[in-house]
Amino acid sequence: MENLVLPDSNFYINCARAGLDPFIELSAHTEVYEFATCGMVVLEVCRGRSQPNVLQRFRERFGLMPFIAAGTSVWDQTTQLAWALDRRGIVLPAPDLMIAACALQAKAAVLTADAHFKQIPGLRVLSKLA
Question: Is the pLDDT of residue 36 over 90?
């Protein structure tokens, strides 16, 4: 699906740091994009929420989004990506490789401020929403 987007953890974290509700920011673009999430994004974002009510709201909102599951094929692709990139001298964080593999599996773009995602072959990367 060409319009499926997996926002990276840093999208949510950067919005929260700026005092913005990331889910409201995404909702302004739902006519163009469909937004999904994956377990690694939920983990990275939710672990940083210090207030239980904010954590609960984030978990509820993530629960409404399409979820890209990380089954065996995603773990295999993550491992293959890590191995191939490492051999080229490109060592990326394992959580980011998992997020990328989830996006590749679902044929989704990744919305991220991290430029290193552009080093992952075949991955569509968005730095902002149109």
Answer: yes
